[in-house]
Write a structure and sequence with these properties.
The chain is an alpha/beta fold. It is about 40% helix and about 20% strand. Helix 1 runs parallel beside helix 11, helix 2 packs across helix 3 and helix 5 packs across helix 7.
Length: about 270
């Protein structure tokens, strides 16, 4: 398996295609298996597309303790160093968008363009779901500890998409559950990553991001409401904001073709 030692862990990664490096960072508890195959296929036609499992998830090591912002950013930079990548395009989904912000803020010379999808600036200024019952993450850890992984995966997936989409696309919902279950999270990794999300904060530093930035968000996002995208777009100089109608937190799956198209167009723009 393709693994490389970075800092105190071994990171699992995959590379598709050739061209300018393009690094994709996953969200809380998920592995690289959860990216839409269509998107990776399209990205790899133009870019050297690099996927990896964050610390605490998938086939990457799961160290003890709580993870923090610098640690998660340093993991990605360490992977870039190991692969001899000086600069890259960077895309982060959900928690991955948090990590991507920290990378740009701490290593501004390593990132050419930034894409934030379904993400936020942290809990102190960000907006959480107004209906606590719609947040799946507090319900997941007890099920994880009981070994009820499929029930846990279905609770998460249920929160990713609007009701009408789920009714019209049961086959896609089953694929999402299957991909998430390919390498389900462990309690130790989930708690470590959750601690990172709870302490992450970039609001007061967002004005320091001075590279081309694209922000993509679903208007019907129940996990990180669309107000979070508007905050990012307002605070990051010259950021572009694109909102997707009738789309939830699972934007990258629900609107995978349009999302992929907009990402490629942004990266290829001079």
């Amino acid at each position: 398996m393709p693994k490389v030692q970075v800092n105190d862990i071994n990171i699992y990664y995959k590379i598709h295609g050739k061209g300018n490096p393009f690094i994709l960072i996953r969200g809380l508890s998920s592995s690289l298996d959860s990216w839409a195959p269509y998107s990776i296929e399209q990205f790899s036609k133009s870019f050297k597309t690099i996927l990896f499992d964050n610390r605490g998830a998938g086939r990457t090591d799961i160290p003890d303790g709580n993870y923090n912002a610098k640690m998660m950013a340093d993991d990605t930079i360490g992977l870039m160093d190991a692969l001899d990548i000086k600069k890259a395009y960077l895309l982060g989904f959900s928690m991955g968008g948090c990590i991507a912000q920290e990378i740009v803020l701490n290593y501004p010379n390593r990132v050419t363009k930034l894409i934030l999808t379904s993400s936020w600036c942290g809990p102190s200024h960000g907006v959480v779901t107004p209906i606590p019952e719609e947040n799946p993450f507090p319900k997941m850890l007890p099920l994880m500890k009981e070994g009820k992984y499929e029930e846990m995966a279905r609770i998460l997936t249920n929160s990713l998409f609007p009701e009408d989409y789920k009714k019209r696309n049961p086959h896609i919902i089953e694929k999402v559950v299957k991909n998430y279950m390919a390498h389900p999270p462990t309690p130790k990794g989930f708690e470590g990553q959750s601690a990172y999300v709870d302490t992450f904060e970039t609001y007061n530093r967002l004005s320091e991001i001075n590279i081309p930035t694209l922000i993509l968000h679903g208007i019907e996002d129940k996990i990180l409401p669309v107000e979070n995208a508007k905050i990012l777009a307002e605070k990051i100089p010259s950021a572009e904001l694109m909102l997707f109608e009738n789309t939830g937190h699972g934007l990258i799956i629900q609107e995978y073709k349009l999302w992929t198209q907009k990402v490629i167009e942004f990266l290829k723009r001079k």
